[in-house]
């Protein structure tokens, strides 16, 4: 797993300059809507080039992590444009270096397509979220519609090779396996592929 993680990390380092120009794969409308629910101590995982940072309000304290130093260097340029207090750290979501029950909110947008072991990553988020905390996500995943699912399965080897991202992850199942209850789930783009999710930890 360490080898796979390192391979994917290097892939994101490589595509960071390109990604910084196309991180609009999720519209600002949905990013703003998601981040509006963030409060208190916030952890953003897989912050990438920092597309969500400008939406955090001034009264939250944000710790934003990513395992790609190059992605973080692009995010650094956006830190000062946010009203919130933000610190960036290089870290793997599969091995979070935070105490149990540390955060009120965890944010993840388009990250769990590429985390090598998504259930381990989600269990780590579950561990560091307070029992009263919320996980706010926008993720793309395998469609429940057979024709779309077949296309995504066929595309998956190519997307993994090119970008490190899987397009056929069963993220709703993974959330439940990791101990989350789904409070809200909305389809926001490409039929049911892109979803906005609010989940709470069963603790
Ligand atoms: C598709 S980008 C999305 C970036 C950003 N969240 C956004 O919405 O624009 C996925 C990001 O997740 C990061 N990532 C993937 N696996 C990770 C892991 N195991 N730990 C930390 N970051 C990870 C990648 O480096 C990349 O920056």
Superfamily (CATH H level) name = Vaccinia Virus protein VP39
Give the total of beta strands: 7
The termini sit apart by 28 Å
The first-level CATH class is given as Alpha Beta
Q: Whole-number radius of gyration?
A: 16 Å
What report would you give on this structure?
The chain has 203 residues and is α/β, with parallel strands linked by helices. It has six helices and seven strands. The protein has helices at 2-19, 28-35, 69-79, 118-128, 146-163, 171-177; strands at 41-45, 61-66, 85-90, 103-109, 129-140, 180-189, 194-201. The mean pLDDT is 95. The protein binds S-adenosylmethionine. S-adenosylmethionine binds at residues 12, 23, 26, 46-48, 51, 65-68, 71, 92-94, 109-111, 114-115, 121.
Topology:
Blueprint: H1 2-19, H2 28-35, E1 41-45, E2 61-66, H3 69-79, E3 85-90, E4 103-109, H4 118-128, E5 129-140, H5 146-163, H6 171-177, E6 180-189, E7 194-201
Parallel strand pairs: 1-2, 1-4, 2-3, 4-5
Antiparallel strand pairs: 5-7, 6-7
Helix pairs in contact: 1-3
Bound molecules: S-adenosylmethionine (SAM).
């Amino acid at each position: 797993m360490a080898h796979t993680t390192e391979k994917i990390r290097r892939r994101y380092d490589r595509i960071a300059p390109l990604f910084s120009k196309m991180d609009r794969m999720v519209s600002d409308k949905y990013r703003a809507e998601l981040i509006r629910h963030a409060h208190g101590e916030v952890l953003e995982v897989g912050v990438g080039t920092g597309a969500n940072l400008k939406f955090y309000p001034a009264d939250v304290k944000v710790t934003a992590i990513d395992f790609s130093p190059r992605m973080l260097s692009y995010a650094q340029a956006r830190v000062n444009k946010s009203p919130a207090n933000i610190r960036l750290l290089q870290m793997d979501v599969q091995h979070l270096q935070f105490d149990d029950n540390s955060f009120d909110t965890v944010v993840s947008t388009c990250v769990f397509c590429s985390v090598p072991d998504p259930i381990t990553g989600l269990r780590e988020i579950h561990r560091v979220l307070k029992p009263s905390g919320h996980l706010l996500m926008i993720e793309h995943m395998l469609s429940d519609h057979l024709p779309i699912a077949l296309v995504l399965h066929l595309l998956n080897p190519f997307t993994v090779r090119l970008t490190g991202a899987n397009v056929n992850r069963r993220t709703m199942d993974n959330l439940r396996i990791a101990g989350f209850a789904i409070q809200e789930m909305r389809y926001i783009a490409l039929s049911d592929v892109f979803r906005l999710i609010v989940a709470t930890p069963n603790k």
